[in-house]
Amino acid sequence: MSSAPSTPPSVDKVDGFSRKSVRKARQKRSQSSSQFRSQGKPIELTPLPLLKDVPSSEQPELFLKKLQQCCVIFDFMDTLSDLKMKEYKRSTLNELVDYITISRGCLTEQTYPEVVRMVSCNIFRTLPPSDSNEFDPEEDEPTLEASWPHLQLVYEFFIRFLESQEFQPSIAKKYIDQKFVLQLLELFDSEDPRERDYLKTVLHRIYGKFLGLRAFIRKQINNIFLRFVYETEHFNGVAELLEILGSIINGFALPLKAEHKQFLVKVLIPLHTVRSLSLFHAQLAYCIVQFLEKDPSLTEPVIRGLMKFWPKTCSQKEVMFLGELEEILDVIEPSQFVKIQEPLFKQIAKCVSSPHFQVAERALYYWNNEYIMSLIEENSNVILPIMFSSLYRISKEHWNPAIVALVYNVLKAFMEMNSTMFDELTATYKSDRQRIWLY
Amino acid sequence: MAGAAGPGTGPGAARGDGDDSLYPIAVLIDELRNEDVQLRLNSIKKLSTIALALGVERTRTELLPFLTDTIYDEDEVLLALAEQLGNFTGLVGGPDFAHCLLPPLESLATVEETVVRDKAVESLRQISQEHTPVALEAHFVPLVKRLASGDWFTSRTSACGLFSVCYPRASNAVKAEIRQHFRSLCSDDTPMVRRAAASKLGEFAKVLELDSVKSEIVPLFTNLASDEQDSVRLLAVEACVSIAQLLSQDDLEALVMPTLRQAAEDKSWRVRYMVADKFSELQKAVGPKITLNDLIPAFQNLLKDCEAEVRAAAAHKVKELCENLPTEGRETIIMNQILPFIKELVSDTNQHVKSALASVIMGLSTILGKENTIEHLLPLFLAQLKDECPEVRLNIISNLDCVNEVIGIRQLSQSLLPAIVELAEDAKWRVRLAIIEYMPLLAGQLGVEFFDEKLNSLCMAWLVDHVYAIREAATSNLMKLVQKFGTEWAQNTIVPKVLVMANDPNYLHRMTTLFCINALSEACGQEITTKQMLPIVLKMAGDQVANVRFNVAKSLQKIGPILDTDALQEEVKPVLQKLGQDEDMDVKYFAQEAISAVAQRLTKLDFPVKDNEEPSAPGADKNHFLRPRGPGEDTGKFVPLMSRHTESERLGWFPRRQ
């Protein structure tokens, strides 16, 4: 015990988290499922000297020993057990993080399997049942991971390992294989947003460094999304995975492979149907726009897809769709715009006359967008007839004065664009109305 | 707005020959292309009518090809289409032509939306039975093979559900091919497909020859049960039930048990949960010997699993497990191998676990008999009756009848009472509601004396609960009690207390009197109703709150059939007539309803009913029940009264006028 680490590395950040997670976990449910089935007795680790206190020739071996020690898992649900050993492992992990960041030549070939083993032992675990079936990520507080004080350092260490200048993917690929990636992807379902954030970085680095795993990673993400859309509607890490995909799409080579197009049409577009869209919509819209910037010819299938899944009862989602559509229109090529303007503006005409003022307002904001305005102007002979009757009607009938004011501006813009047509349409509209009255 | 999609864009082919009999299909096709989903949906739902009109030949040559082409529509329309086609065999000319239905269903079986796909598979399964063996091999089996080797996961998923329906009637060579296809789907690299295959594994095993089960299904089962995804592994547990039923004990031990043992200790709680959830089925499938050797120890582990979900699922199965043990030696097994674990669960940290146990534990008393129950189970029951979670206590109380048969409820009554009283006063009205529902049962088992002494006051207190649902339940509870204890008891204990409330300053309580009378009059009979209840009702006709007055009218209508004609003529009629002239529209309406009901009974006595006294129900009154009558928008007669009521009264349940 005498040689117990006397100078714990700075850990303020970690402590800030730990207290909260323990308190949280006590109220809630175990986050360390299935790992402590037969551990009743206290855990004893023999304290090792600090790496900096031994001659550099002995450091590699000590490093391996420390990695092995860190494979021991503690039960953080029991806040009283093994306190000393938990603290020892924490400071050891901290030391390892520093060591791998600073030291040169520490990544020998033997260390790779040990590093991966230590990381696997710590992070791979069956996630516990969600607190309730009705867990609503927007409303409910997430259950935080009780073992975060250790887990965070393990993630931190793993990221430093992957980012180390000495890191050699050709050696690591023996250990960081498909099975490893699969288990990593399962962890994205973790309820703890801090963990998902680390996972995002880890997966991004792995995707970047291991060319051989790229297709596999994309395919598995595909499977996760398809299951999410068509089977469970439950997966906590969708936003994080989409964020990674956003940067992956950015790097796709042109022309796009059929696989990537299929991913866009058969996976990303159906993701819009999910109830919890608001949790990942920003990332999803980003991915879609990335695709369209790569290959404008995809605009038509994308917009038709959005039309197909246009929300019918959920106004909140409708506002999100309108937002995404504007992002798409911001980058649309005029030649593509012509192809989809009819179905598109039929939908916009419906939105503009929505009794929900936020929907109507969001749609009317399009007319503040200069680029969209220029597109409308170029095609006013097609768009004006589609929009006219809706606009004219709500200018008289909408309950919300702000909407009426916006509609007047839009009508005025149309009048300036194409006054002949505007007058014709006004006349037709009025005579139609009259005919209805007469009838 | 929709210039392009108007009529006239229907296919020229249907119209071109100027044949009038094709008009229906032209209309249908036009409607199928209509912009309005609802119209498209309607026309799809009328598909059989249209097909009937067209005749079998045209249905085959024109309608089906058209439908096959339209498969890009909204999922709602596709779902309706998939369902319709399952019943279409007759409309295309019977079994000889059933294969005509395959192309559209094949496309539907490949769409993304799960409900549509599942419905298409269901219809295909239905149609497969209508194929002749020759047609099955010529048309259906190739379809299954095409789906099974489709590019996108959806078609392969759909294929999984079709193997078992075509296998039994196929020739040996084709059978081998079918098995081959199923095998490859079980190791598909898309987990969605493996899940579909795993969920159909049991079904497929049942139609296979025993040799193939052993040589092919078992290895597939073993593989799926050790899949890298827990969502696949847990489905293998389900398949295990079916497979185990097919094998002899020796084969079972050698081929299936190692995998099942492994599943019971899987690292994923979802798989262990599945084992717990399917425990009774597994127990029956493997038979008593293996149950004793393997399942009981596995069950013990599940009962002390680290995940509450698993423990709760296992706790639910305790009674069934014990019931299904062989009678010989059952008691010893339960006492030595199950009960110690149950005792632990009684003080589990998770309320779902405790409540799951409480819902079945009473059932053990019949199995274990009187002595064991008193010695071992009773302390557990008593502990659970004191549990902090109301659901646990309720579950015990709701199953008291099991114990009553074995040891008599008296053993429990000392602990029962505080538990009941506490539940009766629980802050959550749903808990109070639940305990009320058990009152008649408890009353029957505890006997009238005990009831009068301890529980009667509770039942009366519920009548003035501030939640309407509780008052309503309390009212019907009284009726059930009277049915149990008889009219004399009612007259002495219940009726006087109910009638006193007619003078309560709170109009809600006064209304409760009326509701009680409605409920009790029939059970109490003519004498009590006429002598004790009627005068009170009549007196309340002069109440200053309109709600009370029109409930008087409703009550009079309700108790009318029980009264004799004299009482009706002399007492009820004048009061109703007076209410019929009330200034309040609602009171008038209900009074007139009541008058006409009473009049029907009195027609022989020439009860003078003028035409204008019929419930003429003017337009406004037609919607009577729909008119919201919240305190906020009332006509004013409420206002002075409402202001007298406490805040909780107003905020409490005020759903409708009675």
Describe what this molecule looks like in 3D.
Chain A has 20 helices and no strands. Chain A is mostly helical. Among the domains of chain A are: 114 residues; 104 residues. In chain A, helix 18 packs across helix 20. Chain A is elongated. In chain B, helix 14 packs antiparallel against helix 15.
| Number of separate helices of chain A | 20
Please outline the major beta sheet of chain B. Answer: none
Which word captures the global form of chain B?
flat
The CATH level-2 architecture of the domain at 22-130 in chain B is identified as: Alpha Horseshoe
**What structural class do you assign from the helix and strand content of chain A?**
mainly alpha
The largest inter-chain interface, given as chain pair and residues per side, is: A-B, 23 and 21 residues
* Percent in strands of chain B: under 5%
Mean pLDDT of chain B: 81
Counted beta strands of chain A: 0
Low-confidence runs of chain A: 1-30, 33-38
Point out poorly predicted stretches of chain B: 1-18, 606-658
Order of helices and strands of chain A: HHHHHHHHHHHHHHHHHHHH
Radius of gyration of chain B: 34 Å
Task: Please give a quick description of this structure.
The complex is a heterodimer of chains A (439) and B (658). In chain A, 64% of the residues lie in helices and 0% in strands.
Quick tags:
heterodimer; A: 439 residues; mainly alpha; 20 helices; 0% strand; disordered N terminus; B: 658 residues; Leucine-rich Repeat Variant; disordered C terminus
Write the layout of secondary structure elements.
The complex is a heterodimer of chains A (439) and B (658).
Chain A: H1 12-27, H2 59-69, H3 83-102, H4 111-123, H5 148-163, H6 169-172, H7 178-187, H8 193-209, H9 214-232, H10 238-250, H11 258-268, H12 281-294, H13 299-308, H14 315-331, H15 334-352, H16 357-364, H17 370-378, H18 380-397, H19 401-417, H20 419-438
Helix pairs in contact in A: 1-5, 2-3, 2-4, 3-5, 4-5, 5-8, 7-9, 8-10, 10-12, 12-14, 13-15, 14-16, 15-16, 15-18, 16-19, 17-18, 18-19, 18-20, 19-20
Chain B: H1 12-16, H2 23-32, H3 37-45, H4 47-69, H5 75-85, H6 102-108, H7 114-128, H8 133-148, H9 153-160, H10 163-166, H11 172-186, H12 191-207, H13 210-225, H14 230-246, H15 249-264, H16 269-277, H17 279-303, H18 308-316, H19 318-323, H20 330-346, H21 351-360, H22 364-385, H23 390-398, H24 400-407, H25 410-424, H26 429-446, H27 448-462, H28 468-485, H29 487-500, H30 507-540, H31 546-559, H32 565-580, H33 585-602, H34 619-622, H35 639-642, H36 647-651
